[in-house]
Every structure is written in structure tokens, then in C-alpha cells.
Design goal:
By secondary structure, this protein is an alpha+beta fold. α2 packs parallel to α3.
């Protein structure tokens, strides 16, 4: 089963009625990693009034959130909602607020924390982690022309193209396309290709 996460940390900020909101997002694989990221952002923003957060991790199917002193339901829930609607997992978002002296009200806070999370999500580079197979084989140069023509339609990720006496190829293909691709390679080589396949892998096909 594939999933969508992010490649690395990102952040974005905006100002609403003199309050600065900074959205921070990070890839995490466990609840402990999420907590460590939250604590680091809090430490880096000690003068901030609030550090609202939410995280979703696949391990243990865990999701948590906190309003961090904002009125109940105005911070953590909106941030978690944005994460869920974006389809991301294995991520943690902290939205830091530097209070500007003007109250925003419950609806204003909800919009601001949602926006802070959305901006952080949009700033991050997405990773489409898909189940895949690694296929490897060698072929002669005549056959390589046919193979290289066929591969692009399957969206493969090429890991190795070694041009020596023969051509040695290693690439990743999504699991649901593997059988179809193997059949086509067998057909165009008249059964001469000796394919090696490693299954049940995960890779970024974004």
C-alpha cells in the first residue's frame, strides 16, 4: 500500500492582525520523532505565545494534536484536518504564533492555523511512496532499442544503465504494472530476456 509524505522540512509564514504565524512541517516516521520536532520548534521559538501542533504517523496508526493554550478546537484540530485532507502521513506540523496584541476570535484563529498549516504543506516537496519491484537484466544493443522505447510508458525509475559488451539495466516499476511490463519485455525479446525481480519495495514516484 502506497502513501504520500514529504521529502524534508519546510516552513512558511504570514501575518494576520499583527500576529505572525509560522508553519513548520517535517517528515517523521514515529511519534517519538514527532515529539522531538515539536520540542525543537518550541525551543527555537521560546518567545512565541503558542506552538500549536498535529502529527500523523503510519506506525501504530497514530495522530495527535494540541491547541497549546489557544481556545479549545481553534488550533490543533484545524491543523490536523489540513494534514488529513492533504493526504499526507508520516508528517508533523507546528504552527507558531507570535501574538500581535489583537484578538482574532475563534473563527479567525481556526482560519489562521489552517492557513499556517496549508502554507507549510504547500512549501514541502511531496513524496509519492509506492509499492514497487526492482527489475534487472542484460540485453544486447539491438534489443535495448526496443526496451528503451517501451519503458517510458510504465513510468519506471532507472537506477542503473551500464553500457558495456551488453547493456545492463536496473529499474523500479510500480507493483501494479510489473506483470504487464514483464510480459511486454518477454514478448519483444521473444522470451530471451532473463529477468530478475525484487518485490515488495517502496520508492518515491512523485
Amino acid at each position: 500500500m502506497g502513501y504520500t509524505t514529504i521529502y524534508e522540512e519546510a516552513q512558511a509564514s504570514f501575518t494576520e492582525k499583527k500576529s505572525e504565524f509560522i508553519g513548520h512541517i517535517a517528515p517523521v516516521s514515529t511519534a517519538d520523532e514527532a515529539v522531538a520536532f515539536i520540542n525543537r520548534i518550541k525551543a527555537e521559538n521560546r518567545k512565541a505565545r503558542h506552538n500549536v501542533y498535529a502529527y500523523v504517523v503510519r506506525e501504530g496508526n497514530v495522530s495527535r494534536y494540541s491547541d497549546d493554550g489557544e481556545p479549545q478546537g481553534t488550533g490543533g484540530v484545524p491543523v490536523l484536518d489540513v494534514i488529513n485532507k492533504s493526504g499526507l502521513t508520516d508528517v508533523c506540523v507546528v504552527v507558531t504564533r507570535y501574538f500581535g496584541g489583537i484578538l482574532l476570535g475563534a473563527s479567525g484563529l481556526t482560519r489562521a492555523y489552517s492557513q499556517g498549516c496549508s502554507m507549510a504543506v504547500n512549501a514541502a516537496r511531496k513524496m509519492e511512496m509506492c509499492e514497487c519491484s526492482r527489475i534487472s537484466f542484460s540485453c544486447d544493443y539491438t534489443l535495448y532499442g526496443k526496451v528503451s522505447y517501451a519503458l517510458p510508458e510504465y513510468g519506471v525509475i532507472m537506477e542503473k544503465e551500464d553500457f558495456a559488451d551488453s547493456v545492463n539495466l536496473v529499474f523500479l516499476v510500480k507493483s501494479e504494472l510489473s506483470d504487464k511490463l514483464k510480459k511486454q519485455l518477454t514478448d519483444i525479446s521473444c522470451g530471451k530476456l532473463e529477468l530478475s525481480e525484487e518485490t515488495n519495495l517502496l520508492a518515491d514516484f512523485a
